[in-house]
Amino acid sequence: MNPFEGMVCTAAAADLPLLGTAGHFTGWLCIEHPGAWGGDVIGDEVLGPEITAELAARTSAAQVRPTLIRRPGRNEFTGTRTVLLVSSRPEGSWCERFEITDLRQLFDIDLHLVDGPPPGIGVRVDDPVVLVCAHGKRDQCCALLGRPIAAALAADYPGRVWEASHTGGHRFAPAVVLLPSGLTYGRVDAAAAKAMLEAADADEVSLTGLRGRSCYPPISQLAEVAVREQVPADATALTVQPDPAATHDPTIVGAAVVTHRDGRRWRVTARTVPAAPRQASCGAAPKPATYLETAAVEQLPMLSFARSEQPTDH
């Protein structure tokens, strides 16, 4: 008998570590849509077939994550939608906000702009923006666990919090993403969510519930957090590069080098650990499960030069 049978997905995943589970996105297009979201933003043509087809092609070409957002609570649609264009690159991340009255205005945006500096097409957003996945049609855990967190944060931080469509990892709900940094969290309660945002406002990183930074692939996500657990560092002090060097240890699945702006470096290796099969979504059939864990954190020789203390875009 499957010990996870009948459980919601968050309960079934409760023993799985969070490290390296953030969705891998470096650009976001967040579109306010107070109405029903369906089960899939693109597949269910939530914004209508004509808009959705073009939006899918454009976001795919620019490698931008299309996300629906709405304010917590009940809100009537006024005809004007807020749009956030976000770059979550490792350095120089930014967020701009503007408003549209016709969804076709989305096609006036060159989504490849997320690969460069702030384009100035909207109002610059300086304070971290919070996305809380509340996509109940995708998975019930997101609605049941995400909406209370969104409401609690919105009460303390009005105007900065949005309920969002699927951001990845509903089994780790409540799932939260900070923009533009892309720092992604899971299993946060109201206190942890508030501490997360307080840290972000202070240019720091809360480690409670941290899954990884969305601009990095899974092993690099793990590597950054592994170093942060050992070394105090502000939000933008560390950068990560995959390490392609071969290893003779068959249990190691990859490595990454984490560099501090002062020149200190660490090589972090990771291994994949098998776990008992379980459902990844509520009501789904069990499937094999694995998770990443840190194998070693090795300090490397310090670079002879350090990154300059240039002001970042955020």
UniProtKB/TrEMBL annotation:
InterPro entries: Aim32/Apd1-like, Aim32/Apd1-like_bac, Thioredoxin-like_sf. It comes from the Bacteria. Gene3D superfamilies: Glutaredoxin. This is Sucrase/ferredoxin-like protein. It comes from Nocardia fluminea.
